[in-house]
Amino acid sequence: MTILVTGVRGNVGSRVARKLVAGGLPVRGTARDPAASGVPDGVEVVHAELTRPQTLRGALKGVEKVFLYTVPQGIDGFVDAARAAGVRHVVLLSSIAVTWADRDRNPIARMHLGVEEPLRASGIGWTFIRPEALATNALAWAAEIRTDGVVRCPYPGSYTVPIHEEDVADVAVRALTTDGHRSAAYALTGPQSLTQQEQVALIGEALGRGTRCERIPLDVARAAMERVYPADVVETVLAAQAMSDGRPATVLDTVEAVTGRPARTFASWAADHAADFR
Questions:
Q1: pLDDT of 34 strictly over 90
Q2: Which residue intervals define the domain NAD(P)-binding in the entry (predicted)?
């Protein structure tokens, strides 16, 4: 049973592949450049791109299950290639945003629904993994923390429930390798609702030095974010931060329900990633 892992160098995909290999399963990973570094040991790497479905036929040969990143461009071609190859189950890394009331207007939700909906209609077995906020989002603060230990943001008191990428990968591996997960959609969070300020402070504890958040004007934050992200995504993120400012977020126990053990704390994530902030 070969399992195809797309995004095999990614924060989640690399961990999914590593855990599958450790379990003795044959794993194939897709990459634009198979010769580049960063692929876990024991993974067969092939060239394939989700945005170019014509590259998928060879990658899917002999594959029964797929761990899939959300890439709406080319999803119809992926579904056709997966059906032709006899794929039986796709585990999709989606987003909890698809469950929100504004999902029809939310660009993050629309992007993920653009893959979820074709998979639902495909006739292939599916499982959707929907994390709320990946702890790796905090890596966006790395440059500021390295420079002076100050993270500048418009809403230091906004809450999220960050989840360690290892927990997301553990849930995905369970869905890929054990029964009972088809047609399931798992909303995932970490074990603690934390403000941005609290997350920054925990990174400082992992580093052994002081770190803090500094509030900046909203228009300054917007301008900085728009240099990196599309304007509609920036507005969605800022609106979510404003709504969660001073309002603790809901903590879910899905990781423990699926894997049998509690989700990792943000403090453990910060310790695991301390080198990224030094």
A1: no
A2: 7-178
Structure tokens at 225: 């974010």
The structural domains of the chain, ordered by start, are 2-131 (3.40.50.720), 136-163+190-249+264-278 (3.40.50.720)
> Residues 16-28: pLDDT tens digits?
999 999 999 999 9
Convert the pLDDT of each residue in 140-190 to its tens digit. 999 999 999 999 999 999 999 999 999 999 999 999 999 999 999 999 999
User: What is the C-alpha separation between 274 and 188, in angstroms, rounded?
Assistant: 24
Q: In the numeric block, which tokens belong to residue 201?
A: 């402070």
Rounded Cα gap, residues 123 and 32, in angstroms: 28
